[in-house]
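FW: tagging you since you asked about this chain on Friday. Here's the raw sequence from the shared folder, copied in full. Didn't touch anything.
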Amino acid sequence: MKKNKFLMGFAGLAFASMLLLACSEDFLNAPPQGALDAGTLGNEVGVDAALISAYSMLDGWAESWGSVSSPWPASGSNWVWGSVMSDDAHKGSEAGDQGQTEEIELFQWQPGNSYFNDKFKILYEGISRVNATINLMNSVEGLDPGFTSRVMGEAQFLRAHYHFDGYKMWKNVPYYTEADVDFRKANDADIMPMIISDFQAAVAALPVTQGQVGRVTKGAA
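HL: got it, structure written out here
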């Protein structure tokens, strides 16, 4: 009996010791897995990668079966908000296949029509990525001035484009820049002067031609 009590006490002590060792500060403060830190992105390659992520919102495709948006309402061509609404196009298929388009075509949409929310989300996801790119670039020292000028021009073009798309949809939308930290921003101001200002800054910074196909140029701005 005494031997069994001793063994049980020893086992309990060993278990408690393992718990103490397992619950160390290093264990509680483990770095997130699969996330890029500022050190990894703190160079020209990282800044350019962040900029490309802002470009990627132009087609409106972002985790179509996930959390951001589906490709139909957020398409960069605005076919739902242009061609479908003007009767130049019809979704086709059957009534249960993207039925929100029929509501929009007939101007009989309901408040719960997810297409409006999806379009809004994709535009402001793009704006968020643009501003994150600018803040990242500003935090990195020693970057080539020609590189930073070009990136800033491309970023300002994209920011103006996404906001202008939102302006065409709703007119009264908030305008976010890299300086904004409080996202509870009113939408009662005319954002057109800010859109024009970003486009004008892009014209001044962008080259006439780019070394890679698909990047915006002075002519686009």
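FW: The two ends are 87 Å apart (CA to CA).
HL: agreed, and The longest helix spans residues 114-139.
FW: great, closing this out.
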